[in-house]
Amino acid sequence: MNEPAPARLAVGDEAPDFTLTSDTGEQVTLSALRGRKVIVYFYPAAMTPGCTKQACDFTDSLDSLHASGYEVLGVSPDKPEKLAKFRERDGLTITLLSDPDKSVMRAWGAFGQKSLYGKVVEGVIRSTVVVGEDGTVEVAQYNVKATGHVAKLRKDLGLAS
User: In terms of C-beta distances under 8 Å and separation of at least 24 residues, what long-range contacts does 101-109 make, across chains too?
Assistant: First the structure.
């Protein structure tokens, strides 16, 4: 279990492109969103307390994020059918994407060894990456907290709370 930590993205890096299936079954490709700023956040599991709080916080902020030129993509290993239930159950308006083989999470440094209740385990590392209009990383935050993260991110981006 002594694998190296996943390579994390840093400011200025080219964001790895991806195409993933959304909760509505459509294919979403990152490079198709060039010209817009994109917040890509990675979370462990739909319909768990922390992930629900974070998704609801992003949904509550979505109108003002859109007004500031940001798209929001939430990525988890959940299948699209579970993501659709998550959207329905919690009235989510953000785009939810399925990464069942975790290949995008690995490419973005959001899957690997982490500490969970004092044990080292392999899993999703709750992370948020902001991709600029040109496809480069503007913000890369790893091991973020589910609660209060969106407010902190808005502050970091210079957006009114």
Answer: 102/77, 104/16, 104/18, 104/20, 104/75, 105/42, 105/75, 105/77, 106/6, 107/16, 107/18, 108/9, 108/15, 108/16, 108/40, 108/42, 109/6, 109/7, 109/8, 109/9, 109/140, 109/142
Residue 142, domain extent: 19-156
Q: What is the pTM of this model?
A: 0.92
Within 13 Å and on the Cβ side, how many CA atoms surround 123? 13
Residue 161: what pLDDT? 54
Rounded to an integer, the average pLDDT of 144-155 is: 90
Question: Is 51 one of the annotated active-site residues of the chain?
Answer: yes
CATH number of the domain to which 109 belongs: 3.40.30.10
Domain-embedded: residue 3: no
Of 9, 51, 75, 129, the catalytic one is 51
Is 81 inside any structural domain?
A: yes
pLDDT at 2: 44
